Amino acid sequence: MYGFADTPELDSAQHLLPSGAFLLARAPGVKSPVGCGGFRTYPQREYVAEIRRMYVVPTWRGQGLGQLMLTRLEGLAASAGAREAILETGSLNTAALRLYELAGYQRTAPYVPGRLDINRAFAKPLVAQSGELSRPA
Questions:
Q1: Residue 97 belongs to what H/E stretch?
Q2: Which of 16, 74, 79, 83 could cross-link 20 (Cys pair, CB 3.0–4.6 Å)?
Q3: Continuous segment of H or E residues that includes residue 84
Q4: Does 1 fall in a domain?
Q5: Residue 41: domain span
Q6: Is residue 44 in a domain?
């Protein structure tokens, strides 16, 4: 929709693991993933997880998949010790803005220095979870 605000390399596995996760949503009978999203600990703030790269294939939108993935990412982040989730989305992406607002995210000041006005930053407190995020084998 906008190009890249960050370089794609920012979301490589080394930036998401071991204290983050990346989820792929699959559907029966569909070869390719129908959605994805991840989180990483935000290095500039303690106990904060940044939700990244949320995406749902257009034909699968409007069925609750984005909400399901967001809820799962929040739970994983809380289990890994995060007390707050932050994220950014494009100011013209009305579907994403609605998803995050309905999920309880509040607009906040931009958290990335020098970020263009095209993005909107959001934050949400996370409910404490028991357990820790396990590392992949």
A1: helix 94-102
A2: 16
A3: strand 84-90
A4: no
A5: 8-125
A6: yes
